[in-house]
Amino acid sequence: MKMNVLQKNMATTAEHSNKTETLLNDNISITNASMSLLQTQMKAVTNANECGEGNPTYESGKVIFSSEILNDGNAFTPGTGEFLAPQPGLYYFSFHLLAGSSNTRSYCHLYKNGDSLNVYAYADGTTSSYDSGSMSAFITLKKGDVFHVGGCGGNPSISFDGSTTLTGALIKVDPV
After folding, report:
1. In this structure, which of 23, 37, 89, 118 has its CB flanked by the most CB atoms within 10 Å?
2. Same domain, 99 and 167
3. 109 vs 150: CA distance, rounded Å
């Protein structure tokens, strides 16, 4: 009888051990998947761009920055003023505009794949010397989508001070 009880206890212990091992393996798999996603997200956040230092120009309907402060991931091409999304996800862009002189009104829009997002910065330098405007937006982009600042206008003309900047960063990668 003692032998039967001992065998039954051993069988129960073995069954619990197998269930515990399965749960541990599941938790390890979940942890590994979470770590992989976290590493991807961390890499995405470092894929950032900031342009400035030097007066931007306005060519072919786009703001062209003459220099880059940071272009981690090389997604931004200063010569064209375009940001090419390297991967799908949620991006953050911030554009700061400083009118190039007093008595100047200036504005610019954000564009995705050539279409205006109806978000713009406006600086009314007619009320004070060198006025500023800014805009920020979270934008979902697919891999290969193009973002730029453009559609600018002003009175009497469009001009930018060297304090005009564009910042962009991938905030969250969309799973493929």
Report:
1. 89
2. yes
3. 5
